[in-house]
Design brief:
Radius of gyration: 19 Å
Number of strands: 0
Shape: globular
Number of domains: 1
Number of helices: 9
Distance between the termini: 8 Å
Order of helices and strands: HHHHHHHHH
Strand content: under 5%
Structural class: mainly alpha
Length: about 280
């Protein structure tokens, strides 16, 4: 098996399945303790997603194109943000991190169960896209792929905690909630493997996939995560949010910088393999 494919399988699993298992550990915590920990995870994920976008994905997307294509790549980021907004509106594809989400209200048992089903379907689609984006990042640069998968995991863990809460609130047992979340997370690995066999022959389009990944990360951070952080405005909570956002930014920045310093001789050279199918 090709080493690049092995990397993609391992890190899509890290970004998908393992993040669900890590989030499931929160089920062992008391409700009060879980309510304390989750906001810090959301803050950390916000910083990690924005850092991966602006220090990793976007610069690499620009490096891979000719100067006349920069506007097209930049436009892809804009169109991607608008696309995710439209999808969220049409599919009620909302990554809620609290019980009091309008799209998942408990008007009656049927509505609650439907909300749980929607969460599973939406997560499956989103996880598949995450797998494609992680594969695209790996086919551009191994370090970028690792950073991207870490950013995916950083936002998936607090998201999955929220999804577990929604599924339990919708009437699913803990065992069923864990099973369906793992099942939907396998879509990350499927997306990564399928992308490996298709994107390797479509090098021209890799910068646009990286741009879409950045759009996805920016949209999730700005439209979903940051608004939830504004629900509490006291000075102590605000300082904690700033600290964990900065920690997320710093972790991705340091990892990205150290990885590229270790391979300074390869700076600026795409790491796409010509014989990825051998």
């Amino acid at each position: 098996m090709d080493l690049m494919l092995v990397f993609i399988i391992i890190f899509t699993a890290v970004g998908g399945v393992l993040s669900v298992l890590a989030a499931a550990m929160f089920l062992l915590l008391s409700d009060a303790r879980r309510e304390q920990v989750l906001p810090h995870g959301i803050s950390f994920a916000t910083g990690a997603l924005l850092s991966a976008s602006f220090w990793g994905l976007i610069p690499h997307a620009f490096e891979e194109v000719e100067p006349e294509q920069i506007h097209a790549v930049s436009g892809t980021i804009l169109m991607g943000i608008l696309l995710f907004f439209t999808l969220e509106k049409l599919l009620v594809w909302r990554h809620c991190h609290s019980h009091a989400c309008e799209a998942h209200s408990d008007q009656d048992a049927h509505a609650k169960h439907s909300a749980g089903t929607l969460i599973i379907i939406g997560d499956g689609i989103h996880n598949f896209v995450d797998g494609v984006l992680i594969a695209a990042a790996f086919l551009t640069d191994v370090q970028l792929g690792i950073v991207t998968s870490l950013a995916v995991a950083a936002h998936e863990i607090p998201q999955e905690v929220g999804d577990f809460a929604i599924l339990l609130h919708s009437g699913y047992s803990k065992r069923s909630a864990l099973f369906y979340n793992i099942l939907s997370s396998l879509a990350t690995v499927v997306g990564g493997v399928l992308a490996y066999y298709s994107l390797a022959d479509l090098h021209y389009y890799l910068p646009y996939f990286l741009a879409m990944a950045a759009a996805s990360f920016i949209y999730i951070a700005v439209a979903d995560l940051i608004p939830s952080l504004h629900e509490k405005t006291d000075i102590k909570t605000s300082l904690q949010q700033i600290f964990f956002i900065a920690a997320g930014v710093l972790l991705i920045y340091l990892f990205h910088s150290l990885a590229h310093n270790d391979e300074a001789h390869a700076a600026g050279e795409p790491m796409i393999m010509e014989d990825t199918h051998q």
